[in-house]
Amino acid sequence: MAEAATAIHLCDTAVTLAFSVLGKRWNGMIVSSLGGGRATFVTLRRAVTGISDTVLSDRLAELAHTGLVARTVDAGPPITVSYALTESGQSLLPILSQLGEWASANLEVPAH
């Protein structure tokens, strides 16, 4: 019985950690946008409508820190910075898709 409780606690801890990153506004959209391949900051800003430059920069840094996104600086000229999903980030795409399908089927959109 103690083993089952430990397994539940470990699962809950892992899910809490995952949602501490994925539950932040914009992170899912950024990961989804990078699912199409490498993108520059400007391309991401256009893809994730409504996000400010500061928040996009912060979110990209956080996603890079967690190992979901890789940041590459190309020497140029001109110098360009691009972002791409890591293998870990790529493995998240089908999970986000499944989560979206589940939410659409099971959760009601709150009335404004």
How do the helices and strands line up, and which of them pair or pack?
Blueprint: H1 2-22, H2 27-34, E1 39-40, H3 41-47, H4 53-65, E2 69-74, E3 80-85, H5 87-106
Antiparallel strand pairs: 1-3, 2-3
Mean pLDDT, to the nearest integer, reads 89
The portion of residues forming beta strands comes to 5-15%
**Number of distinct helices:** 5
* Overall morphology: globular
The low-pLDDT segments are: none
DSSP, total strands? 3
Spatial strand order of the main sheet: 1-3-2
Content-based structural category: alpha+beta
From the structure provided, what is the oligomeric state, counting identical versus distinct chains?
single chain
What share of the residues lie within helices? Answer: 55-70%
How many strands, what sense, and barrel or not for the largest sheet? 3 strands, antiparallel
| Helix/strand order, N-terminal first | HHEHHEEH
Rg (C-alpha, Å): 17 Å
N- to C-terminal separation?
45 Å
Characterization of the model:
This protein is an alpha+beta fold. It is 62% helix and 12% strand. The chain is built from five helices and three strands; from the N terminus they run ααβααββα. The chain has helices at residues 2-22, 27-34, 41-47, 53-65, 87-106, and strands at residues 39-40, 69-74, 80-85. β2 and β3 (80-85) form a beta hairpin.
Features:
112 residues, alpha+beta, 3-stranded antiparallel sheet, 62% helix
